[in-house]
Amino acid sequence: MALRELSSLEKYLGLKKPNKYSTQGDKKVPVLQNNNGPPLVGLVTIACHLVKEAKRPELLGDSAEGRAVVQQWLEHRVTKLDGCTKEDTKTILKDLNLYLQDKVFLAGNQFTLADAFIYFGIHPLIVEMPIQEKEQYVNVTRWFDHIQHHPGLRHHLPPLVVLRNRIYTSRHH
What we know:
Blueprint: H1 2-13, E1 21-24, E2 29-32, E3 40-41, H2 43-53, H3 64-81, H4 86-99, H5 113-128, H6 131-134, H7 138-148
Antiparallel strand pairs: 1-2, 2-3
């Protein structure tokens, strides 16, 4: 999964020459063989490197606070989201739903790497979720739909249909 995400990120960033990746350990941690130095290890480390290589620093946050928030979400993805249990999923989605209550993006007023990798991370959870459960996480669903339509991002993932149900008041019945 992580290798496909990194490949999608490369395409999104417009990097011309695809990198060579391998994995290490039971958790299949991605490794980027770096021509001019030691290998880079870990999803977040490699993703940040690719963003810098593409000269797209705004994807890492547009201020010191923004950069800290992006790093925090990337860390959250790797430590909490990857390999979470069914019980963890509910807590993660509940917390994310609350966080997104008054936000369009995870960090600041623009799309960042945090949005991409949290989207990649929760995609498999949302795919398997019944509609009734999705309705419990309206802010996550709204954010998810917005991010999945971000130009050039969703290379390796199928789009998900997000239903928007109208809520009628009793006098319309």
